[in-house]
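Postdoc handover notes: sequence design on the structure in folder B. Input tokens:
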């Protein structure tokens, strides 16, 4: 079939040229319109439920809400894991589904089950499904800065001016507003005046609710017109509320303002944002799942430019996180590597071919394959990202392999000066190498196809790599038997085909050295097997990790303080830390920190938790060579603040860790059990053990216990006397402390809540439990009692946070690992925990984080490699019709692995998923040149009776194409090794492995393969 394709291409040259021109045009258009992102979509199908239960403790919500919802959700099909985090007044429940599950189907299933049990939840509980986003959907963050505006005014602008407009941008799922204060109108009753007026709190509340109404009365006809009549009572301002009239049972009239205070206040907040040591407000843009990141962010920027003209004078929008910066930097890193790889390959081609036109023809296969690959990427829904473009860089050196062999053979045939038409010589040259070229390229393609079966994070990351390599190699193979021979007919002539002298000298030296190896192989065999044994030893000295850490440019420090800290104290501590960091660490450009929970509840943190986002200065201005050194300097400063735990992460890294394990940290240790106190005790024991292990840093333990509670238990005799229930007492106290919204003031598009509250939450005079006991309460009969007369009041401790996984409670200890591999670290802590921590019956320890991903990836790859080898054997057997000769070529593989191991060890890199993918790539690349060499041996087997001469001549003939294919592949990967921008960390181990493996496998192809072939042929001839 391939011969027919070559013949058709050479006889229909114009058709082939036009066809490829059209394909290139389509590819160029695809590149212009393809989605661009930093990474492939690595998020799982995930549905998040946010349920708020105002006033309820973590333990109460767990018992009455979380358990009920989890029990209903456990039976959902395709669910892979169910996690929940329950804190004061809120629970967040997350369901992960198996890959491939439709997000709309998953949300429908969850929503249906929520509706089944919603009526079983306590009164006052509200919430539902969170927006359809992913953990990586946080695309854009900015704060509002204006010294002339209060925090309340800034938040008002965000809530009512900016947020509604940004939500109209295509691809925006939600705009989360954080920090500042929500303005309210509050009524604080004076219970002494209420008692004197003989008016109850319920009557006040009823008057406010029933007065804030507009009503439709009907229509009347006046002349020829139909006129609508309506009553107007809606509040227009604070004065219209203050002037409300209240009557008592005796018909006496009082103004609302005479029975208490009506004033502008603020909603109680459970979170805040600080910037550079001062409070501010922030907006966080959350994108829809599967949206185009670059387009969404650009749409947001365009809309913000329009909004700026409507903002108060002096207002600035301070953008401190823009995902497109990472996208642009990562794509620039990889495209620069791509361009450098192309240039290096072209220079090498020119060097080896020493033929300008032949080098040009071979070089054309690169833009042809790359550009047409973009159209296939777009067709298959791949974005242009760090991984997919990285696949193209990896493929650059291999793209030219098939064309190199074809063009080199064309040049050789024309050099021989055979008296045949040039077109016939070109056809014969192409035909003679078609079989090995096809077999070798198909083997390379087949090697990468099993990578598509990888699951989890590694599968989502490396599937685009495998696909782009398969696309590019397939197009390159097709081009080598179609457009490349066609172009050769126009450009390559016999008059210019002279082999350069340095190639002749190289061939002579190689032929001499090969003859020596064939005649006296002992030293050669001892040498290569010695190196092989050394590489086996070195392999077991190399540490193992899941994935190199991608430098995102920015840095996040996660702080955890004592669980009972107030929001005010937490903010004050954050301000101190921010000012100290800015003063002592000049590498930090600005700091924006978020404390506590956001209003939407998408990321419900406690008051003692803070994420400090650090925007860093350009790296060329740093005092340090690496980010690790910078982190160590920051760590020294943070250790000066007592009572805090902290850990380092990055924006995307943090969300990926939370997505995979529910916690941040390279290593997590989860303790499952029922008793909260015991879980907390075991977690602290494990934490102490981990601290003794070398390499452990940033150890954080979930502070389960530490929540302080005041328990109010209604006295039965008082309840009986006043016909007062626990529910009624709770509602009343809630109105005095948290506040109860009873209505709202609507002015245009703005809404201001009206609260019934005495603002005890922020009462600076209420500083002890005794003062709370003496708090006055007006009873239904208008008598006044203190709280201690009504109830028994006590102080207790309980859980501040309860985390659950698949309906089981757990505590977690998380840490990062520094200066050693993760697998070895986990093996050591596993042994120490098993030895030093006594687990009671019913308690279980599980290890997670990157270690868990690394183990899963290793197991998957161990399944992939045998499949790859089997495919290679099948193709080799189909090509050579000999199992012996198929295994002869397979002998190259151990020596390819040898070079990969040695280069990995010398570089200091760990054995990671990218490095493992590099070893898999070597399986194909190492075979390609072996196929070319063995095919030529078979062609020349009857040309001479001297076996050594025959093998030496055949190997010498293939020296140039083998060196060309090997060096172009190696030098094509060098830009990935020396690249320093974001994303280079992931591709670097793969490139190192392939370069080292290609070097050793090329030596094996040139010396070991001829030697083994010689031994086999010698025995068969005998």
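Designed sequence:
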């Amino acid at each position: 079939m391939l011969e027919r394709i070559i013949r058709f291409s050479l006889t229909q040259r114009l058709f082939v040229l036009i066809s490829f021109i059209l394909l290139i045009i389509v590819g160029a258009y695809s590149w212009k319109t393809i989605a661009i992102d930093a990474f492939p979509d690595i998020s799982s199908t995930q549905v998040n439920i946010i349920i708020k239960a105002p006033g309820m403790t973590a333990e109460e919500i767990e018992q009455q809400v979380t358990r009920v919802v989890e029990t209903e959700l456990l039976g959902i099909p395709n669910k892979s894991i169910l996690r929940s985090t329950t804190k004061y007044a809120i629970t967040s429940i997350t369901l992960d589904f198996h890959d491939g599950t439709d997000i709309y189907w998953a949300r429908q299933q969850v929503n249906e089950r929520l509706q089944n049990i919603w009526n079983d939840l306590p009164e006052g509980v509200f919430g539902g499904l969170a927006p359809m986003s992913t953990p990586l959907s946080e695309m854009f963050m900015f704060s509002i800065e204006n010294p002339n505006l209060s925090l309340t005014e800034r938040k008002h602008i965000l809530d009512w001016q900016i947020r509604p407009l940004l939500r109209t941008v295509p691809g925006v799922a939600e705009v989360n507003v954080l920090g500042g204060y929500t303005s309210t109108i509050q009524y604080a009753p004076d219970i002494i005046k209420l008692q004197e007026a003989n008016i109850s709190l319920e009557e006040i509340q009823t008057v406010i609710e029933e007065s804030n109404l507009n009503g439709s009365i009907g229509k009347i006809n006046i002349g020829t017109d139909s006129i609508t009549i309506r009553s107007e009572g809606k509040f227009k301002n604070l004065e219209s509320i203050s002037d409300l009239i209240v009557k008592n049972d005796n018909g006496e009239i009082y103004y609302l303002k005479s029975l208490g205070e009506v004033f502008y206040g603020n909603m109680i907040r459970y979170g805040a944002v600080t910037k550079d040591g001062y409070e501010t407000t922030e907006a966080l843009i959350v994108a829809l799942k599967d949206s185009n990141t670059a387009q969404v962010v650009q749409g947001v920027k365009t809309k913000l430019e329009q909004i700026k003209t409507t903002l108060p004078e002096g207002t600035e929008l301070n953008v401190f996180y823009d995902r497109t910066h990472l996208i642009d930097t990562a794509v620039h890193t990889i495209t620069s590597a791509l361009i450098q790889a192309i240039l290096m390959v072209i220079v090498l081609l020119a060097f080896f071919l020493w033929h300008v036109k032949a080098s040009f023809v071979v070089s054309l296969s690169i833009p042809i394959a790359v550009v047409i690959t973009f159209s296939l990427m777009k067709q298959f829904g791949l974005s242009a990202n760090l991984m997919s473009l990285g696949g193209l860089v990896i493929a650059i050196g291999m793209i030219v392999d098939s064309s190199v062999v074809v063009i080199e053979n064309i040049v050789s045939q024309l050099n021989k000066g055979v008296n045949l038409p040039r077109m016939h010589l070109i056809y014969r040259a192409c035909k003679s190498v078609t079989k090995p070229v096809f077999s070798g390229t198909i083997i390379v393609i087949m090697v990468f196809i099993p990578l598509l079966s990888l699951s989890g994070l590694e599968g989502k990351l490396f599937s685009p790599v495998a696909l782009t390599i398969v696309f590019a190699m397939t197009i390159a193979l097709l081009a080598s038997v179609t457009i490349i021979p066609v172009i050769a007919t126009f450009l390559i002539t016999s008059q210019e085909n002279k082999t350069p002298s340095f190639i002749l000298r190289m061939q002579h030296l190689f032929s001499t050295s090969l003859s020596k190896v064939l005649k006296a192989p002992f030293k050669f065999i001892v040498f290569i097997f010695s190196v092989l044994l050394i590489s086996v030893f070195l392999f077991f000295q190399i540490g193992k990790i899941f994935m190199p850490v991608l430098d995102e440019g920015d840095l996040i420090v996660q702080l955890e303080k004592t669980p009972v800290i107030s929001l005010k104290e937490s903010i004050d501590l954050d301000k101190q830390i921010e000012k100290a960091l800015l003063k002592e660490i000049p590498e930090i450009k600005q700091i924006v920190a978020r404390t506590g929970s956001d209003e939407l509840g998408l990321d419900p943190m406690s008051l003692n938790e803070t994420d400090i986002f650090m925007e860093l200065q350009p790296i060329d201005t740093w005092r340090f060579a690496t980010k690790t050194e910078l982190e160590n300097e920051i760590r020294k400063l943070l250790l000066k603040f007592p009572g805090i735990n902290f850990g380092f992460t990055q924006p995307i890294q943090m969300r990926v860790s939370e997505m995979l394990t529910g916690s941040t940290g390279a290593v997590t240790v989860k303790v499952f059990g029922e008793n909260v106190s015991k879980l907390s005790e075991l977690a602290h024991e494990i934490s102490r053990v981990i601290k003794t292990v070398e390499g452990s840093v940033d150890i954080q333990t979930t502070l389960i216990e530490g929540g302080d509670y005041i328990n109010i238990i209604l006295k039965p005799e008082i309840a009986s006397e006043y016909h007062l229930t626990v529910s009624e007492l709770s509602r009343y106290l809630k109105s005095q402390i948290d506040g109860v919204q009873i209505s709202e003031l609507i002015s245009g598009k703005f809404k201001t809540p009206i609260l019934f509250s005495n603002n005890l939450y922020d009462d600076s005079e209420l500083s002890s439990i005794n003062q709370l006991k003496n708090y006055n309460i007006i009873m239904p009969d208008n008598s006044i009692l203190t709280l201690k007369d009504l109830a028994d009041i006590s102080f207790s401790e309980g859980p501040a946070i309860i985390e659950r996984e698949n309906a089981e409670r757990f505590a977690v200890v998380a840490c990062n690992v520094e200066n050693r591999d993760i697998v070895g670290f986990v093996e050591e802590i596993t042994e120490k925990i098993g030895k030093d921590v006594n687990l009671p019956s019913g308690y279980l320890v599980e290890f997670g984080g990157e270690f868990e991903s690394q183990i899963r990836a290793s197991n998957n790859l161990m399944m992939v490699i045998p499949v790859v080898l089997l495919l290679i054997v099948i193709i080799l057997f189909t090509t050579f019709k000999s199992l012996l000769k198929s295994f002869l070529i397979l002998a190259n593989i151990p020596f390819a692995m040898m070079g990969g191991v040695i280069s990995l060890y010398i570089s200091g890199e760990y054995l990671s998923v990218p490095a493992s993918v590099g070893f898999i790539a070597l399986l194909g690349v190492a075979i390609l040149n072996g196929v070319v060499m063995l095919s030529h041996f078979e062609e020349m087997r009857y040309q001479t009776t001297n076996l050594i001469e025959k093998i030496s001549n055949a190997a010498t003939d293939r020296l140039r194409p083998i060196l060309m294919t090997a060096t172009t592949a190696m030098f094509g990967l060098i830009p990935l090794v020396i690249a320093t921008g974001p994303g280079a960390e992931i591709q670097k181990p793969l490139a190192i492995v392939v370069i080292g493996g290609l070097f050793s496998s090329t030596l094996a192809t040139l010396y070991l393969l001829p030697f083994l072939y010689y031994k086999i042929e010698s025995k068969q001839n005998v």
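Context for whoever picks this up: The mean pLDDT is 84. Don't rerun without checking with the PI first.
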